[in-house]
Give the backbone structure.
Amino acid sequence: MKRSNGCSALLLLICFAVLGCIQAVTLEVREKNSTCIKLELSAFFSITYNTSSSARTVQVPLPNTTTVDAASSSCGTDGSLPWLVATFGSGHALGLSFTSNGSLYSVDNLTLQYNLSDSSIFAEANSSDVVTVVSATVGIWAVINTTYHCVSAISVVAGGQMVTFSDMRLEAYMPGNELSSAETVCSADQASTTAPTTTARTPTTPTPEPTTPQRGTYSVSNNGTICFLAQMGLQLNFSYFSQSQNKTIQEIFNLTPNLTTSSGSCEDSRATLNLTQERSTTLSFIFTTNSTTNKYHLSGIILFANWSDMTVPFLAGNTSLDYMGTTLGRSYMCNAEQTFVVENFSLNTFRLQVQAFGVTSNHFSTAEECQMDQDQMLIPIIVGASLAGLVLIVLIAYLIGRKRSHAGYQTI
Ligand SMILES: *[C@@H]1O[C@H](CO)[C@@H](O)[C@H](O)[C@H]1NC(C)=O
Ligand SMILES: *[C@@H]1O[C@H](CO)[C@@H](O)[C@H](O)[C@H]1NC(C)=O
Ligand SMILES: *[C@@H]1O[C@H](CO)[C@@H](O)[C@H](O)[C@H]1NC(C)=O
Ligand SMILES: *[C@@H]1O[C@H](CO)[C@@H](O)[C@H](O)[C@H]1NC(C)=O
Ligand SMILES: *[C@@H]1O[C@H](CO)[C@@H](O)[C@H](O)[C@H]1NC(C)=O
Ligand SMILES: *[C@@H]1O[C@H](CO)[C@@H](O)[C@H](O)[C@H]1NC(C)=O
Ligand SMILES: *[C@@H]1O[C@H](CO)[C@@H](O)[C@H](O)[C@H]1NC(C)=O
Ligand SMILES: *[C@@H]1O[C@H](CO)[C@@H](O)[C@H](O)[C@H]1NC(C)=O
Ligand SMILES: *[C@@H]1O[C@H](CO)[C@@H](O)[C@H](O)[C@H]1NC(C)=O
Ligand SMILES: *[C@@H]1O[C@H](CO)[C@@H](O)[C@H](O)[C@H]1NC(C)=O
Ligand SMILES: *[C@@H]1O[C@H](CO)[C@@H](O)[C@H](O)[C@H]1NC(C)=O
Ligand SMILES: *[C@@H]1O[C@H](CO)[C@@H](O)[C@H](O)[C@H]1NC(C)=O
């Protein structure tokens, strides 16, 4: 594919170090020379690990040298679930197991295994363990005998780590050896209104003055009821190399609510919200609970952008953040503009209210306001108090003055 060729050796090195170069990968599971699972995609993992001094997050792309582990993979003919296990690098693996009820099939669970001994990826890790994380809420499903197709980036959280897929075609329980031509289009793609390519965005001529973004309402539902609710205006601030302008530009990009779809997952201790605009820009938020403090906080922000004007997709994020601390059962509110600096990009939020856990009857619970809002509320009070003080001083001065001048007249 176009993108995998775009990476020269040097670029690849830079990609791995800074962004993670996204390559297209094709994987298939065969048994008795018929194919039962086929997967074409680009993927990357955001993995947080400990060094001796701090937690660190790396973006690990799925390389195009990834191969299917035939011994672990299975077509499920022995009564087990069909399972695709792909291995890459030194002891890293991605697994997808499938289940079907006869009319639909879906990803039953996703496993990610990574080897912390691999110092080319996990520099200075203070552990040498091979870690395995699993997610059982993947949200990938399709009608049987059709190909699941999703151009948009979709993210899955597994044990605190994040897996992001894009440009994905997938089929399990395949009736033939090739992907079925009939497709089940993922919901993130269905909602987008623009051209059917990954290249929705055309470059804007000289970056216009940033305007305040529109406020959007986004939610994640679990079994038909809203479990994650957010209202906010979002502005991205990052730089990339523009092909049309032949230079690196600083981009201020406002998310447009009615072009943006939301998806995500709600688990007991972790909730994710993925916002995708026109298939080409995906911004993900991860919130985590802390049972000892009875609070939750924003623990991760990841940005993936794949615009036609870019030479390589933009990918950056951090999953060990600690922002927006809020008591469980409450929402977090900040009307003032906030800036979150994440690695090499930043996110500005406007008129924000978020509740990642414990949403009841589709409404926000009582809000806890950010310090900036509290400070702003103090300003009119302070101004009022100062004015009152000033009036008092003038009045006293006037009275004293009057008394003095009175006395003065008498002596003359
Ligand atoms: C399937 O395998 C058999 C023997 O293992 C071989 O004779 C046959 O040509 C193969 N069919 C295809 C379509 O590759
Ligand atoms: C990192 O260390 C902290 C504190 O010891 C621990 O709670 C956390 O689970 C560790 N994270 C990983 C990914 O090992
Ligand atoms: C690794 O470092 C974290 C702090 O970053 C520490 O809490 C943890 O105990 C360390 N683990 C090992 C195996 O040394
Ligand atoms: C995930 O699926 C595989 C294959 O079906 C299975 O072996 C494994 O036990 C599953 N893991 C979890 C946690 O359900
Ligand atoms: C993990 O990585 C180390 C160093 O690259 C390697 O020696 C070891 O065999 C790997 N472990 C597995 C299970 O592949
Ligand atoms: C399979 O599951 C879907 C959704 O849960 C349901 O609509 C459908 O009727 C099920 N099909 C069968 C054959 O059970
Ligand atoms: C799927 O395709 C196979 C082979 O063409 C066929 O036998 C099967 O009935 C189809 N299943 C459904 C649910 O259409
Ligand atoms: C989903 O909702 C239905 C009806 O509201 C309920 O019967 C079912 O148990 C729920 N499933 C889960 C997994 O919560
Ligand atoms: C965007 O980021 C740059 C560099 O970090 C900064 O100088 C600039 O003020 C930011 N602009 C906005 C609108 O946030
Ligand atoms: C882009 O800029 C570089 C140097 O700034 C120049 O050498 C190159 O020819 C330019 N490419 C195009 C297509 O204009
Ligand atoms: C999006 O909203 C703008 C203004 O709010 C409106 O002009 C436009 O038609 C809307 N687009 C869609 C696709 O709904
Ligand atoms: C929970 O909060 C406490 C106190 O701030 C902190 O020490 C602890 O590491 C946190 N636990 C997790 C899992 O984040």
Q: What stands out?
A: The domain at 1-190 is CATH 2.40.160.110 (Porin). The two ends are 102 Å apart (CA to CA).
